[in-house]
Amino acid sequence: MPTTLKRDSLVSFANEHRSEFEALLRRFVETPTVSVDPNHLDDIRKGVELTVETLESFGGKAEVYRADKGNPVIHGVFGNDPKLPTVTVYNHVDVQPASKETEPWDTEPFVFTQKGDTYYGRGTTDDKGPALAALFGARAAIEADVPVNIRFLWESEEEIGSPNFEKIISKNAQSLKTESVVVSDTVWVSRNRPASSAGLRGLLGFILRLETATVDTHSGETGGASRNVVFHQFFLGGRDLAIKVERNSADDIIAFHTNSPSTTRIFCVARNRQFLAASSLVPSISPMLRKRKP
Ligand SMILES: [Zn+2]
Q1: DSSP string spanning 140-155?
Q2: From 7, 51, 64, 249, which residue has the greatest number of CB atoms within 10 Å?
Q3: Mean pLDDT, the chain, as a whole number?
Q4: Percent of the chain predicted with pLDDT > 70
């Protein structure tokens, strides 16, 4: 289906709506949605209200999804034609703390400040600015009759590791169903070169338990012959440590190994983010750990 959305029309759309974008970004930046600080819970609430109001003022239907605890995820729905593909744009509306007293800010972090064509204020870049840019982009697409259903998924706990995101997504999978997701919590390489990120580095927290024997042993009797756990842990902290994630049907296998061929490979077995570790130096314990239910 042809669309009137061309590069030139996008540029004039951006120019026409710039002051509207800036006014809205100001409201978001000046709502200090600091998710790590419980003193800002009321600001999170205000930020969620502002998000709903914004999505609705753009013509979307906004739904707020919550887990038992924590901050919600807001879903904005634009278009619901089953014949069209559906794309979901992910952003987050919470921010990191910021202080002019303890950090090198030239301006007040929670006051939206413009210097030339640059915006200053916590969240202008990460991730309120990109969230609103995507929303204005959706408006341009809708006005140009681009044949697509658009969804927005705006989280409010990203800066604290998204502790409830997975729960909320799983519980509401049917309503949040989509065909593709664009993560709009990324950067452009330069002002003149729009960038579309193909991958993001993630963080995976876990507790590592390294066992080198099947039973407790007495240092006075078997000390010299026993594998020394501290020694093996050095490999895990080594500078040439590489981490490889392999998958099979039952477990995610995270293989820690060093790049040096002379050093030991160490394997960890992970299930539901509970990690059991086994060193391949001690083959006898690997089968035991693999069988054990975490
Ligand atoms: Zn971010």
Answers
A1: HHHHTT-S-EEEEEEE
A2: 51
A3: 81
A4: 71
Model confidence at 241: pLDDT above 80 = no
CA of 14 from ligand 1 middle (Å) equals 23
Q: Give 167 Cα–ligand 1 centroid separation in angstroms.
A: 20
- The Cα–Cα gap between 232 and 171 comes to 41
Q: Which residues have C-beta under 5 Å from ligand 1, the single-atom ion?
A: 126-127, 185
Between CA 4 and CA 11 the distance in angstroms is 13
83 Cα: distance to centroid of ligand 1 (angstroms): 32
27 phi/psi in degrees, rounded to 5: -60, -40
At the fourth CATH level, the homologous superfamily of domain 7-183 is Zn peptidases (3.40.630.10)
**What is the three-state SS of 230-254?**
HHHHHHHHCCCEEEEEEECCCCEEE
Domains in the chain: boundaries: 7-183, 210-291
Rounded CA-CA distance 289/283 in Å is 10
The Å distance, Cα 213 to ligand 1 centre, comes to 43
Beta strands in 99-177 (DSSP E): 113-115, 118-120, 149-155
Q: Is 94 among the residues known to form the active site?
A: yes
- Determine which of 3-7, 8-12, 80-84, 139-143 has the lowest per-residue pLDDT on average: 3-7
53 as an active site residue: the answer is no
Q: Which of the 8 DSSP states describes residue 175? A: T
Taking residues 160-184, report their average pLDDT: 95
Q: Of 126, 155, 158, 159, which residue is the catalytic one?
A: 158
